[in-house]
Amino acid sequence: MKKNKKTLADYMWIISTIYLLLGLFNILFAWLGLLCFFIPLIISASGGGKKYCNTYCGRGQLLNLIGNDLKLSRNMDIPKYLRSKWFRYGFLAFFMTMFLVMLFNTYLVFSGDNELRQVIKLLWTFNIPWNWIDTSIVSPWIAQFAFGFYSVMLTSTILGIITMLLYKPRSWCVYCPMGTMTQLISKAKYNPNKL
Ligand code: SF4
């Protein structure tokens, strides 16, 4: 069968990769990641359902590429408990709580109660010093948000890669908080009885 012609949307994985690399050179680029946060929600809220996930998500494409094309995925079925509602909603609740903690830490720097911490927190546990970048051109809270947000993006990428290696390439999408949120928005919009 003839392969469908690729479109620009098929190359979003390049943008995701560039984003991750930019954060290595200058943490302030982490702010751009907010686009990956708001665009899926806007698309879903305006009736696009899971269009972002199905067409535009660079991370999903990247996992697919590494897992399928580079054959780094074991291609096993994801365990049932990771698919369950309680796990997906529980993980979303945990993820959002950690996101709020990150925002609160940003606020503390903004209010002057805390000093800027130039670290990346991986998997919500490990502090990695990230102090080779001069962030003095912006207010400390702007830099603090960038450190926090990049930590979130790196952490979810690591979880996505681990899940891709262990199971099927896009298994992360089963419990990805953005995917769960866009699904919830779509259900609330079109199928409120199924919530
Ligand atoms: S579930 Fe998450 S990682 Fe997967 S395509 Fe959707 S937004 Fe991207």
Polypeptide structure, described:
- The protein is mainly α and 195 residues long.
- The chain has one domain.
- Helix content is 63%, strand content 4%.
- It contains 9 helices and 2 strands, in the order ααααααββααα.
- The protein has helices at 12-25, 34-48, 51-56, 58-69, 80-83, 85-111, 140-166, 172-175, 177-190, and strands at 119-122, 126-129.
- A two-stranded antiparallel ribbon has the order 1-2.
- α4 (58-69) packs parallel to α7 (140-166) and α6 (85-111) packs antiparallel against α7 (140-166).
- The mean pLDDT is 94.
- Bound molecules: iron/sulfur cluster.
- Residues 40, 53, 57, 59-60, 172-173, 176, 178-179 line the site of iron/sulfur cluster.
- The chain crosses the membrane at residues 12-43, 86-110, 149-167.
- This is 4Fe-4S binding protein.
- It comes from Romboutsia weinsteinii.
- One of its GO terms (molecular function) is metal ion binding.
- It holds the Pfam family Fer4_5.
The unique ligands bound to this protein are: iron/sulfur cluster
Q: What summary fits the major beta sheet?
A: 2 strands, antiparallel
| Helix residue percentage | 55-70%
**Biggest β-sheet: strands ordered side by side in the sheet:** 1-2
Ranges where pLDDT stays below 50 over 5 or more residues in a row are: none
Distance between the termini: 39 Å
**Count of all domains:** 1
Strand residue content: under 5%
Counted by DSSP, the helix tally is 9
Report mean pLDDT, rounded to a whole number: 94
Question: Which structural class is indicated by helix and strand composition?
Answer: mainly alpha
What's the number of extended β-strand segments?
2
Radius of gyration: 18 Å
Order of helices and strands: HHHHHHEEHHH
Tell me the overall shape.
globular
Pfam family, one: Fer4_5
Keywords: 4Fe-4S, Electron transport, Iron, Iron-sulfur, Membrane, Metal-binding, Transmembrane, Transmembrane helix, Transport
InterPro entries: 4Fe4S_Fe-S-bd (IPR017896), Electron_Trans/Redox (IPR051684)
GO molecular function: 4 iron, 4 sulfur cluster binding; metal ion binding
